[in-house]
Recover the amino acids of this structure.
């Protein structure tokens, strides 16, 4: 990742694409605190198992869990569907669920919900193991791209159907290592 301009509207170049600053660190952190508060209220007195979705959700999971004041466990699964800037239409399971979630409240942690294809794959992976309940918390949600049945319950920030990187999200595996989020310049 190369910074091509450093005015107050920073631009970055990742491989063949240019991106511009879109969501600040402050806005990201505030939206995560709001999601954490809602989860703390909704699950008061209960135990939760968070299931983070690798790779993209590692930063969101790390920041969110610090604001959770309930008894909780965290586990990760790894799935992949994206190639470059678009979904391949197929979701591959690379690392499955290793935690026992039977009769437990599960909250899936996603970086972004786009078409919802990844979510439906995750629901079937998780439902298979008879949890008490399953909900989804995602930092970002593209409602215009969503084709799934069940939209995510906890959403940090809704965005239009544009490709973004940063704060865990990648373009061709690069660009995950920023505190802010950048939007593609078309
Ligand atoms: P879905 O299956 O179409 O909902 O896509 C979900 C996955 O695709 C996310 O977990 C991300 O890993 C990836 N993804 C979707 N939109 C973007 C984006 O704008 N930038 C980077 N990755 C994305
Ligand atoms: Mg992902």
């Amino acid at each position: 990742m190369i910074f091509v301009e450093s005015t107050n509207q920073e631009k970055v170049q990742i491989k063949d694409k240019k991106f511009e600053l879109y969501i600040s660190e402050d806005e990201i952190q505030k939206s995560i605190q709001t999601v954490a508060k809602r989860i703390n209220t909704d699950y008061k007195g209960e135990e939760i198992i968070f299931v983070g979705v690798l790779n993209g959700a590692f930063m969101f999971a790390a920041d969110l869990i610090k604001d959770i004041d309930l008894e909780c466990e965290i586990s990760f699964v790894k799935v992949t569907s994206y190639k470059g800037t678009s979904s391949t239409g197929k979701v591959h399971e690379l690392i499955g669920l290793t935690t026992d979630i039977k009769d437990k409240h599960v909250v899936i942690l996603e970086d972004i919900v786009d078409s919802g294809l990844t979510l439906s794959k995750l629901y079937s992976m998780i439902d298979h193991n008879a949890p008490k309940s399953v909900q989804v918390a995602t930092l970002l949600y593209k409602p215009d791209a969503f084709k799934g049945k069940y939209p995510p319950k906890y959403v940090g920030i809704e965005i239009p159907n544009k490709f973004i990187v940063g704060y865990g999200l990648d373009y061709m595996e690069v660009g995950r290592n920023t505190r802010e989020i950048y939007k593609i310049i078309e």
Remarks:
- The domain at 25-160 is CATH 3.40.50.2020 (Rossmann fold).
- Residues 53, 56, 81-82, 87, 110-118, 163-165, 169-170 surround inosinic acid (ligand 1) (CB under 6 Å).
- The radius of gyration is 16 Å.
